[in-house]
Amino acid sequence: MARRYFGTDGIRGRANGLITPELALKVGQATGLVFHRGEHRHRVVIGKDTRLSGYMIETALTAGFLSMGMDVLVLGPMPTPAVAMLTRSMRADLGVMISASHNLYEDNGIKLFGPDGYKLNDGIEAEIEALLESDLTSRLCKSPDMGRAKRVDSVHARYIEFAKRTLPRNMSLEGMRIVVDCANGAAYKVAPEALWELGAEVITIGNEPDGFNINRGVGSTAPDALIRKVREMRADVGIALDGDADRVLIVDEKGQMVDGDQLMAVVAGSWRDDGRLSQPGIVATIMSNLGLERHLQSLGISLARTAVGDRYVLEYMREHGFNVGGEQSGHIILSDYSTTGDGLIAALQVLACVKKEDRPVSEVCHRFEPLPQILKNVRYRKGQPLAEDKVVSAIEDARKRLGNGGRLVIRPSGTEPVIRVMAEGDDRALVERIVDDVVDVITLAAA
Questions:
Q1: Of the listed 101, 288, 329, 335, which one is catalytic?
Q2: pTM score of the predicted model
């Protein structure tokens, strides 16, 4: 059954469009019903990023949970992984993060975590969605049983200490000049503070949120400001987070970007050497570069691939016992520490490798040469052009032309009527021709 509200990462849409106070209230009520288990006093933790609409959604969600007899602990601006961690740490029955991640301020979203700190599975989301379509008035709690809400101010320090403890004992970042870009988002307080407490000289940008400027010209999706600052300050490294700090990209001392594939290679190699990989491999998506796969193979490390989306990476990791996974976009999941992607903790693990090897970031974080990778999108109006015989034939022919020297990935977008065509291989000219040929056929079929 097609779902109306939940996507691959909770509920997300335009604030006061899809994400209204009425919807947030119902989400609180419906989720409160689903997670009312036992006679104990139930509690919910609610965090948010820095979007203007966060105030509205936070208040409406709180009212929904209170009306179902659940106490609410309001955390204020906190990274998504911090909310997941605090859900477990504070023995909450539920965690909620109000964020649209790397989107601009006009959008917002609601991410839900179970008491174990993991995002909800499809079955539970479907149960909540069914309740959203029903009248819950008769299921409200009795007046004496209504919940209470209070703001918790100590959580920033708790998360900073948690992040610091993921590093080896006595590890110091003293002597490092670090520029951190907080995307005017949820980590604008905790990320600079954690780096400073670890001994680094910290220069911060994207740390003046005003409700409107989250991810605007800053953060992991807009790294040019960080690149300029790293060069200007002659910094050793730059760290770019996104709006809710569940992803990270790095800029080396030369101002060169280091994507999630390279970061996974750094962590995987270091953890293999230290005997810390729980399996002789890591998990990434179909979009990770073939260069990463070849590099890992040279180290005796396998690469398992999943569909695009950090939830699919995490599901595979949990099912098969991996403790390192992620996406090229910078979602890095280190399950020894986190139940979701954590940009700050991933950055700290990379910095620990830099300190251990005592070499520049450009050397430590450049583990392989990425193969030429071309991605193009084809928009369609109706129907599914991938089912057309001529499209199927063109894709088969393209794969034969690439042979064992490359990969072709064709996938529909999960959020818009777009077909994404990606190819990579050793021969850039061949890769470009193959992508263009497939795009032409799909375009004609979609007309």
A1: 101
A2: 0.93
